[in-house]
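Re: weekly structure request thread

Next one in the queue (441 aa):
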Amino acid sequence: MKPVVAIIGRPNVGKSTLFNRLSDRKKAIVIDQPGATRDRNYTDCTWEGKTFTLIDTGGFEPASKEEILMQMREQTNLAVEEADCIIFLMDGKEGLMPADREIAKRLRAVTKPVFYIVNKIDGPKHEDFVNDFYQLGIEPLYSVSAQHGLGMSEFMNDLVDGLPESATAEEVEEAADDVIKIAVIGRPNVGKSSLLNKILGYERTIVNPLPGTTRDSIDSAFTLKGRNYLLVDTAGIRRKSRISLTLEKFSIVQAMKTVDRCDVALLVIDAEEGITEQDVKIAGLAFEKGTACIIVVNKWDKVEKDDRTSGTYAKDIKDKLKFMDFTPIIFVSALSGQRVLRIFEFVEAVYGQYTKRINTGELNREVAEFLKANPPPQYRNRSNPVNYATQVAIKPPTFIMFVGDPQKIHFSYERYLINQLREAFGFDHVPIRLFFRKKRK
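Done, posted below.
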């Protein structure tokens, strides 16, 4: 799992400029996601080989009574709580402001690393602006120009040196032996906590707390019918006192952190509210990361039903999640326990597909049949044959096909091949990754 770094500070001190500078994108808060275009203010960054998740926040005004500024203040408090490391950004041209003093005072009580950055130091003639900030009694102070990239290396090198280590791929694989890691993700107040507690209260033989790698998180290991599981907790968004509209984006941040650690994600949806835009965003995140998912429609006992309700509901979900319409759906009530145990039948089936390997010979025999039934389209009257296929990874199942010219494979033909792989090898409930490489000479 990647460490999390939050940028905080007053409005208009250059937080978004720094965010874009570190993410190396001109519009880092906008990404193109399958099924939806989503605005977000977090991204994965890499500096000197160290990868971390960076969060941008709204401006922090400690004393403001305006509702929007109070919401932005709550966002900042949540960012501080979630992050492993904090960048406190101040405006060198404006000088030290009362709000800066108040923020610095609050940060003194924080036990995690805090980097105090004076921004808008655009050259040697601005260096004297930094002197004003020594009144805070804090060292070191870093002077930077987020706009021009000046002074970035020193503070970023120190920052990544202080970040907790991410687990390597080898460590993750070793830890996964004989344990299925399940993340419970979703918007606030959809019943994640109730579902988790109901699961742990059923027919368990072993339950022991394991310290999680995220702050205030406790992972729960348990055994059900001889199979070992680990519930990857989302403690940071489960406390009811913290639930508010401003928490919506932090449900995404928590989902990022937990999805990185899981084998199967349970995306919990509130049956009374139906699938929302935020649910689609979280689903898109899981799809982007290639995570196996199960959609758990909770509070089903509170919905008035007839013999068509579940079918209509499932169709609506699949219409809104066209990019992952292969994902199984189960309707449960965490409160009553209705069908909660059946979730694990889905988990076993999905995990079996997620970790399935196909013999290369069998794969190529089936691929030959796909190609015979529907050959690759010609490009400029020249054929572009698929010569060879191999599976290179699991979690998710990942395939490479060697072709004459990979650039000439149309996305519609790629979709055809993926659908054929699903049907031929039973990958009907998990994401598949398919890549094309130039054929070997």
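DSSP finds twelve helices and 18 strands in the chain. The longest strand covers residues 179-186.
Next request, please.
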